[in-house]
């Protein structure tokens, strides 16, 4: 006599046996019902996940579009600065100071060291929509600091050195020089200090 197989109601394939859970129904009926319920549960889970994915996508899409728009706008704003920096580098200068550059402004300025290994070959350049329109007209200076600006005027502090000062340690104070656009170029509104050549008491 063949031994009777034991079976669980979910996976039992023993035809003719009664279900341990529903004794009044054949195992095949219980199995079909369990399989149907399991498919319904899986379908509901899949539908819920799809709805969640659509909701997350709907939330993230505007943010992604806004980010792309912001990146494009930033690229447009930086175009003039990029052009100016390229012009600056054509002279072999080190990366300039951009603290006096205001995006969206017609006039802007770059300044900083060009060819000196010690950083004391300072220059000031002016730009109109990224187009080079001139310098401060002073050639090289030992140390320059950008102070403030408005639409057409820029103010720089030229650090002053006494005759005996080392480049690291100026003691002569500083002179503020303003430059204003006159319709053709930037012109100094204040008398610039002379270049320190070792023969004058105080110079830039």
Task: Give a structural overview.
The protein has 204 residues and is an alpha+beta fold. The radius of gyration is 39 Å and the shape is globular. A hairpin with an 8-residue loop joins strand 1 and strand 2. The strands form 3 sheets. A 4-stranded antiparallel sheet has the order 4-5-7-8, with no helix packed on it. The chain folds into 2 domains: 1-90; 92-203. The protein is 31% helix and 23% strand. The longest helix is centred in the N-terminal third of the chain and has 63 residues, at 27-89.
In brief:
This protein has 204 residues and is an alpha+beta fold. It has 1 helix and 9 strands; from the N terminus they run αβββββββββ.
Can you list the strand order of the major beta sheet?
A: 4-5-7-8
Helical residues, percent: 25-40%
Global Rg: 39 Å
Shape: globular
Q: Mind describing the biggest β-sheet? A: 4 strands, antiparallel
Order of helices and strands: HEEEEEEEEE
What class, by secondary structure content? alpha+beta
Total individual domains: 2
Number of helices in the DSSP assignment: 1
What does the oligomeric state look like here? single chain
Span of the ends, CA to CA: 115 Å
Question: Unreliable stretches, pLDDT < 50, 5 or more residues?
Answer: 1-22, 25-33, 56-75
Percent in strands: 15-25%
Could you tell me the mean pLDDT? Answer: 77
Task: Work out the number of β strands.
Answer: 9
